[in-house]
Amino acid sequence: MSHETPSARRPGRPRSATADRAILDAARAAIAESGWAGVTLGGVAARAGVAKTTLYRRWPGKNELVLDALADLFDSLRLPDHGSLARDVEDVVLQFAGLLREPRTRGALMAVLAEAAHDAALRERIRVSIVARQKHLVRQGRERAQTRGELPAEPDAAAAERNADMVFDVIAGAVLHRLLVSAEPVTAAWAAAFATLLTRGLAALTDPAGQDPAAQ
Amino acid sequence: MSHETPSARRPGRPRSATADRAILDAARAAIAESGWAGVTLGGVAARAGVAKTTLYRRWPGKNELVLDALADLFDSLRLPDHGSLARDVEDVVLQFAGLLREPRTRGALMAVLAEAAHDAALRERIRVSIVARQKHLVRQGRERAQTRGELPAEPDAAAAERNADMVFDVIAGAVLHRLLVSAEPVTAAWAAAFATLLTRGLAALTDPAGQDPAAQ
DNA sequence: GGGTTACGCTACGGCCCGTAGCGTAAGTCA
DNA sequence: TGACTTACGCTACGGGCCGTAGCGTAACCC
Question: Which domains does chain B have, with CATH numbers?
Fold first, then answer.
């Protein structure tokens, strides 16, 4: 996943790709069954039919393993073209909420985020394997919206990047907060209302007559 | 904190209020020093000058203790009146980000949320001691904005409640996500842009000509 | 074959959890 | 004052999991 692909083949016995997949599958299963607290590296190893030491040879600890096991989940997100930005956002929001429908998956994700709060290396790992990997959705949506004329073009690249980050934080943050802290479901109605709020607000934000766009 | 206040004085030796405060202070200190993983109930007890058993007599476990230790932090949030909804939102966003400036505080909060994902009792505890206790800020802001004429009045109470929940999720979610997942600071410029996005979007959302407000 | 790396297995020290048991301290009530 | 009730401090314990060390074996390259 985030391991170096041995471009130059090294001598010695190669790592078993089968074991890699077995371990990640076992980790996902363990998460689904017993949540974060229920995941023990010993248990994952046993379930994967692998020695515990093999596990420690590949991942520094529980956080990194679970993160890798979760990262793939988000790769299934797609931005369909419904003809309007709001509809597209609504669709992606529902997809995202669907991925986190399982409470234990939510728990595992949050736990990793929690550890990241005081672990810079883990934070970087998250940034690479989840955030950066999904940010293309935001860029894609913006391009479409600008082509449609729904959103004005940003004055410069820096402003465009700031707005993309903002959109990402607002979407992912709102959905996570609703599911996890408020503990209420993301329904179609909620997604529609949220998409309206976001797209209207975004139009105002990008509008040059909107506010002072003082850079950070 | 969330214990029953002994309205009718019971017989026997009363619980030491001093110990309660000492334990919560010790827990906060432990969080600040070593983050979630570093908090051990044994350690907290020792630091508080209290027997470990005393701790277990009052809190079911680590989650509940840390939650109680964190809940007070949010009570300092205030909604100042700057004359415009956007400015008020901006102010509160900066306050909120300020509370979470300390990475270890963020970690402790996130860890509690993570556990809550698969612990309904803890979820309820969070809902009561944090979410419900701070939601008055949203209601207050809405009332002011409607008095000022910045926002239209909602058609009915249910719609008003839905919007309030939405605002809460968007604000808290976006700030948390930016600080924790994106790992970028909440600057004054970011807060201003976010406040613009939210207030403009909210105006569109509440606008009767906005979209179909199909209830959930 | 020799060299190199990965694997499975076992065993271990260490830390922390959560509880039990006991004697003692601090209150209430008669 | 003395009986009663509840909280406290202390010690001890079984149990679980962590993360590592050591060893023999398996797979791959030259």
Answer: 17-58 (1.10.10.60), 70-206 (1.10.357.10)
